[in-house]
Amino acid sequence: MSTQAASTAFSALLRRDLLLAYRRRAELLQPLAFLLVVTTLFPLGVGPSPQLLADIAPGVIWIAALLATVLSLDSLFRSDFEDGTLEQMVMSGQSLSLIALSRIVAHWLVAGLPIVLLSPLLAMWMNLPDQGLSILIESLIIGTPVLSLIGAIGGALTVSLKRGGQLLSLLVFPLYVPLLILATSAVSAAVVDLPYAGQLGLMFAGLITALTLAPFATAAALKLSLS
Amino acid sequence: MISISDLSFERYFERVFEPVSFDLAAGSLLLVTGSNGCGKTTLLRLLAGLLEPSEGKIHIQEPPLYAGHNPAIKDDLSVEENIRFWMRFMGTRKTDLGPALLQQVIDEIGLTPVAQQEGRTLSAGQRKRCSLARLLFCDEALWLLDEPYSNLDREGIEMLDRILRDHLESGGACIMTTHGSLRPEGFDLQECHLISGRDRYAEAAA
Asked: Quick one: closest CA in B to A223, which residue?
């Protein structure tokens, strides 16, 4: 398979996914609305004390981001699996890892990127101090692609199950733990003017690892689910 | 083109169908017949490489084209968008023809009037036609068609026969399943009758 054919297939799939996302935009907004609702519930639940909210802000925003991502993961491969598209893609001779990567990129564009864009609003709601905001955004820019990459493995593993969504969240949440710890600790450190480069560096290393390995793992999981 | 010997597949330690062997040369058509549930689709999926055989060997020169029961059509995309996506994705030698080829394909499968309609509005027969569109732009020499006649009207059946005849005349080959009621007319064909693994045990017990 020539590189040109592969890149044509990659861009064709990416364009199709973005077009589909646009046609189903109501579906797309649900995880984002969920993100906003979860974040608003915290001040109501734990009390609106500004200091308390500022303390828990990094954790709350990141956990809400995790939940919103997991919500959208189940549909990552499901419709392609159910209508036979996935079968045809496997048969087409195109690299399955490349197909997986294209789906992951599309997922990040429609599910991860909006979280990054919404984060200043969330930070304001949670009274996050100004010096933490840019680090929160940076941590989300590095972290949300990892959420999509790791989540795709779970999505591919559970795609053949009728109700795979719950199992999917059980599978991926433990894998998100290191990311959550690093991200919230980076933001908390930045708020009190401590160095945070180490945490961000480790997150970046995680991103590179996930980017190099997850497409292959996802491809293998898809193969398993199809047979 | 393809030759298989003593091929069988086990599901839950039970053979789905009795071992089959056949050779298929270029230009020929093989009809796989058998009752519902005797493993016709399983056999095609084995040949397509979507399943691993439990026993036996498959010698195949190049990856085949497989058209299964699932039409691989997106409900939210129009007929034209669906076909255009598959043309780009499959990467055919004929891609250079571009929009002209797309129009030609849609004309040939008879979906011109609904080309701009969303996939969800199509009838079962129109869906089948749409999924058969890839026969017209793919380069694969061996076709694996799973019940290609189902849901098609008389005109659709004639269309498929025409496409198939062209393919066989240009040196292609095709393996097609049918449960018996609809068969390709006027073809010189080989036939392979599948026997369900369960039936044989029933016969032995009787």
From this structure: B50
Are residues B125 and B162 part of one domain? no
Based on the fold, state whether residues B118 and B179 are members of the same structural domain: no
Closest CA to B130 of B82, B182, B65, B62: B82
ipTM of predicted assembly, 2 dp: 0.85
Domain boundary among B92, B108, B139: B139
- The domain in which residue B57 lies consists of 1-64+143-206
The answer to whether residues B6 and B60 belong to one domain is yes
B94, B186: one domain: no
Number of domains in chain A: 1
pLDDT value of position A58: 93
Characterize the bridge pairing of strands B29-33 and B10-11.
Answer: unpaired
φ/ψ of A191, rounded to 5, equals: -60, -40
Beta bridge partners of B20: B7
Best of B52, B74, B87, B89 to disrupt the A interface (most A CBs within 10 Å) is B89
A226 band by pLDDT with thresholds 50, 70 and 90: confident
Q: Which two tokens stand for residue B152?
A: 């098609």
Asked whether B24 and B1 are in contact (CB, 8 A), the reply is: yes
Nearest-CA residue of chain B relative to A15?
Answer: B85
Residues 98-157 of B with CB under 8 A from A: 134
A85 has a chain B CB within 8 A of its CB: yes
CB distance B138 to A5 below 8 Å: no
Q: What is the residue whose two structure tokens read 């005849």? A: B165
